[in-house]
Amino acid sequence: MRYRERRVADAIRDIVAEIILKQISDPGVGFVTVTRCSLSRDLRNATVYFSVMGDDAQRQRSLAHLEHARGFIRYQLSRRLKMKFLPELHFALDEVLAQEQRINRLLDEMEGLEPEGEENK
Fold this sequence. Notes:
By secondary structure, the protein is an alpha+beta fold. The protein has a single domain, classed as K homology (KH) domain (GMP Synthetase, Chain A, domain 3), CATH 3.30.300.20. Helices cover 50% and strands 18% of the residues. Strands 1-2-3 form a 3-stranded mixed beta sheet, with helices on one face. Helix 1 (3-22) packs across helix 3. The protein is globular, with a radius of gyration of 19 Å. The protein starts with a helix and ends in a 9-residue tail after the last helix.
């Protein structure tokens, strides 16, 4: 990612996170954490990745509510971020945290198992 893309993506991530935290009063969104943002090369499309505490049903519910509030979020973003073309927003669940938790759980399970060579000692 080029420097300008990274700066714009970081600004979008920060502003969208603040909008969700302070201006969206929909309880269906849940406890959302905006983790990162990626932009297309032409800066016309932005994908905002987020994580949610809860089960898969809660994640899908939060995604649906954020998609429903996309117009409001984009409007608030346009008031704070001055660009010639404001990117179209897309929301996606960030699966990195779920994968990290799965790997940690597998490593914890492996710690409980003794290697075969050390059983006879």
